Amino acid sequence: MSGWIRRGLATALLTGLALTMTGPLPAHAADTSTVYEALVDEGIVRVTVSTAAGAISLPPGATNVSATIDGEPVEPTIVEGPSAIGVGVDEPGALVVAFDLPNSSSDAADTIKANAAYVWFPTWVWGDPGAASVEIRVPSDFQIKVDGAVLETAQVDGWTVMSAREITDPAGWDVTVSARKDGSLVTEIAQVDDFTYVIRSWPGEDAWVTRMRSLLDLALPELADLTGIDDPIGRPLVVAQSTDPQRNGFDGWYVAATDTIEVGTDPDVHVLVHEASHAWFNDTITSERWFAEGLAEAYTALVEPALGRTPGEPSEPPSEMIRLAEWDHTTLIDQTTVDMERAAYAASWWVVDALVDDIGIDGMRGALADLAGRRSAYAGPGFTVTDTPADWRRVLDVLDANGATAADEIIGTRVAPVIDAPLLATRATLRERYAALADDSLGWMPPIGVRTAMDEWNFTLAGDRIDAAFAFLAYRDGLVADGAEVGSLRASYERATTPVIPAVEAASRVAESSDAAPAGRTALWTLTAIAALALGGWVITRRQAQPAPISTVPIDPSAVDELGSQMALFSLPTSPDPGRFTLIDLDVLARLDEELDGIEQQVLFEAPTPPGPITAAADPWADVLKQPGTIRF
Q1: Distances (CA, A) of 359 to 224, 317, 330, 368, 377
Q2: C-alpha span between 144 and 148 (Å, rounded)
Q3: What integer pLDDT is reported at residue 477 of this predicted model?
Q4: SS3 418
């Protein structure tokens, strides 16, 4: 998916926790400065507070505390309080307190990270309102992001220096710094079966790499087997060590633009497999968040037994749960939103688990392949790939096409917006008529015009075109009853893009106006019907042993005029197959030509053994084409 595919709300957000210092004890000074330095080679963030003699509070986890008065080392008095450690001195003078915030091995959202590839730390400000300043130094070869304030930035001696002066609310200061240097990540390429993936870790994280490989070597082949898709992204999956997801309220996430999973130092196994599954379940499958996340949850549960874990079971969501098609990528801004996110994940899992149970693993393999390949649920001759978005409508179509029996009920009651209930009812009616059309076609696929309208959920148009197709099949059956060969009509019928019944009716009147014998009328009927179909967007096609007989059948001019007028209602969007050709009476073509000005026209000829596309150099029908009474245009 574009942007993030995220899973799992971080515990800190779910419990309403954040960094809980009540704010530093104010330093007793008119001017107080605080300097932060990310010393990544040492694995620490060093903090230096310069103020007047007095007391300041230290943040949790501070170590290596030291102090000076007027430049002379002094032994600070450290007092532990309920929410902070106070550091004070009894002597007057300029007080400088220094301490370190060391790199933590924890994934908690408020822990310090400082290594050669990644830095994250919160900042505090000491001092009086309007008299406090802060300076933050990070090596200049890191990509830096500051949340909570806009700071002045300068490059100084290999540092990116960010600063703020005359801070009016030191106690309310809430700024965090994150920085990445991906070039310092340790990269290891791994392969399991035919699947290649890349692990990118912070330096010195050998145990993390080993754990990732042991889990992924089991999980990835299972996912490939369950989905039937061996190479879902066409390039190696990247698994990167990062706590950015935790900082944003997630246990992990998948960055679709780079096919990268980012997880922390101690990810839950379920989270890791869930994120890995997004290599399969992303924008190539669906534009709907519920379906991507529900697939990830359902297939993670299917994989977990291979990892020695017992998967959980989804719970049916409450009836008042939001319709999942309305669930989007929401910013986590309050506890209500957090609760909704958690409920939507759970509901998506339940829905997709129910769909998998309904269609079966094999059926879902087929559905995933169709979605990934953009294959229409109404695919057939001339129309296979669809441009319709892979939203819940297309998901429903594809599931039904692959054998689902309960998808309409599940998606209709849990996913589709309530406002679309009438649309779903209309769809059910049209799908019954579509199935009846297919049954009446004697193995012929419904025309393209019908199939594209169904694919686009344009059911009004689909209904009209189904009526037209039924009517044409009735004419075809009449030809069969007269002993006519209609096999050559099949490709034209299946590729029809527009309704053609007015032209077909006119063609029947042309045939009935002929004084020829019944066999001649049938031949002419077939020809004029074919011509009508061709100019309705279908290919002109007629199989016959000899090209001459039809050209001698007399035709009522007024009937031809009517046929031409009806044909003029349609266009010929594509040229006929150059390997198929027929012969048409000159008078018919001349009259039609007057009615079809500006419409692309092409008449080709067909022999018992087709010679292929007609060329001037080698044309066995060249002499025929030169004879009076025939025309090629």
Answers
A1: 18, 21, 30, 12, 15
A2: 13
A3: 81
A4: helix
